[in-house]
Amino acid sequence: MQEKRDYKGTNFITGLRAIAIFFVFLIHSGGGGLRELGGAYNLFVDFGKYGVSMFFVISGFTIFHQLFSGNYSLSKFLKIRFSRISIPYFPIILLIFIYINMGGQQFNGWANKFNNGEISIDNLFAHLLYLASFNLKYANTIIGVEWSLHIEILFYFIFGYLIVNQFLKINFKNLFFSLILAIFIAAFIHYLGHINKVDRLLVHWMPFRYAWMFLLGGIGYHYRNVIHLNLTRKTLYQFSNTAIFLSITCILFLLNLKEINGVAFVNEGVFAVLTFILIIFVRDGAFFSIILNNKFSIWLGTISFSFYLFHYIFIQARFANYLTNNSASLLIINFILTALISHFWYKFFEVRIYRNFKRYIV
Question: Which residues contact 44 (CB under 8 A, 6 or more apart)?
């Protein structure tokens, strides 16, 4: 079942994707009974929302990696990234659009809230053009989690343009000031939501609130290369083990800081920074990297995009409720069902179709 990934010594990133998708699945599934235990267990489920922050940082790493190490032109980069997301994504939204408009039961709470359960043709086109996140009425109303994909596509264009045209360069001064500006914008947007000047849901789905996370991933790409050139393998492995150990310790520590656990901006920042640190320091051959490099993590991380597309549909459609009402059992069944269809969806769309299509691009 293990998938082989060749990412120049960063196969652990596939394991990071596995952790991120598990976090997202955990919160959307209600925690599988963990919330009922209260305390740190409930907070752990809440941390699931920051799985998306991890994905954004990893995407930033990918953008910089492909444009600097891969020497992609802007056109080639955008074609590859756009097709990478669209080939698995478009068939799902088209199938749901057809199903709903043929009288199928609406399972998406956002569609019920904003559009009385309907999916209009202009809503569909907004999704196909990756513009839905700019309209609260459309943002999440087909799959239920697609807001993040529209943000990804937007920043592929923005960072791709800035990098290719050398507005964003790999040097400390340029990256530092770009990051500070992006953090300031994010904090300001978050503040507008906090004082109710802007709808909080719109703030959550607003693209420029997350620009700093993509930048952080790009900075991680740069400094990973720097330390790789200046440290011995033994030292790199020591740093790797220390980074993983401290990250786990930090998460456990956060679970006991109840006065901070209500501050979403702080918490998502912590998860983004931890992902950034792991990107810089973790090495596949280090002892603790087995946490990220085991067969299950590699498999789940490999199918994580298809899993992301399907998991909310399975949870909201409540197929598993016909089998059990137990919270833990529902979580396990939904996970298995989502993983199975995601595995086959990955094999067909992300491997066979996408890789064949990619040959014509490159």
Answer: 34, 255
